[in-house]
Amino acid sequence: MGYSARYHAASLAAVFLALAIGILIGAGLGDNLLSDTEENLRESLEADIESARGEADDLQVQLDRERAFGERAYPGLVGDTLAGRRFAVVALGDLPDSVSNDIEDALEPSGGKLASVVVARIPPDVSAIADALGPRFDDLDQEPAQLQEIGSDIGSQLVVGSGRRLARLRDVVFTRSSGEGGRLDGAVVYRAGRGELEPEQEEAADALELGLVNGLASTGVPVVAVERSGADESAIPFFAPLEVATVDSVDLTSGRTALVFALLGAEGNFGIKETANTLLPELLQPAGGAGD
Q1: Which residue, 104, 231, 290, 292, is most buried by CB atoms nearer than 10 A?
Q2: How many helices (H) and strands (E) does the chain have?
Q3: Burial of residue 65 (number of CB atoms within 10 Å: 0-12, 13-18, 19+)
Q4: Which residues, 6+ apart, have CB-to-CB distance to 243 below 8 Å?
Q5: Which CATH superfamily, name and number, covers 81-270?
Q6: CA–CA gap between residue 266 and residue 261 (Å, rounded)
Q7: For residue 284, what is the DSSP state?
Q8: Which pLDDT belongs to residue 23?
Q9: How far apart are CA 90 and CA 115, in angstroms?
Q10: pLDDT in tens, 238-290
């Protein structure tokens, strides 16, 4: 019995020793295998990253070439197509310098003249508008349809170049109004983001904006709503139900080209975003306009 017990104990000890040795050897092999796998993965990822960087550099070179070509070709493409025509920029709420510069850059080689720039106060000062128009409009803050009608009158009179309501309300409706006036051959509209407004302010802002844009379009001249390609919040859906063309990337050469040909009369939603029907309109030939 003693021998058997000692043999059994020795056998168990040998088994545990072998197991411990196996674990140590396996751990060492596993560390080596894991280390080799990690090194191979790292080298593979580094190669992929280097390849992607090379492709990105090649694409950037191609993009720079295309951009340079577009900028060089643009004046020849639109040169003098709008010669003798007069346009206004109508901003709803604000007009950033970047957007103003984009529009001017688009018009300059076309020969079109920026005759007027107005920036509407958004939200509108409904009480001041009512005071300027007289007692009949004391309830204007409760009548958004009436405010929209007033906006429509002002929009159409901007195109005509004169009008009683425009003269009476110019300094109330617009925070900025500059230019020489006179009849226009078209208008470029920009709608700024609003931020947080009270419900009644939102309603009044919608009414005035819709009125102004509809009033511009009612005269029959081309009206084009624009924004930049990187706009935080697109305004194009606001203009979708209205009878105006839209350009969602006026900061790009394609957008400037679309703007010029939309001011010639091309209809549609142009640009690079999901709201666009196509990148560019058909390249129209200039026809006689009011400025001719």
Answers
A1: 231
A2: 8, 7
A3: exposed
A4: 214, 217, 223
A5: Response regulator (3.40.50.2300)
A6: 6
A7: P
A8: 57
A9: 11
A10: 999 999 999 999 999 999 999 999 999 999 999 999 999 999 998 766 554 44
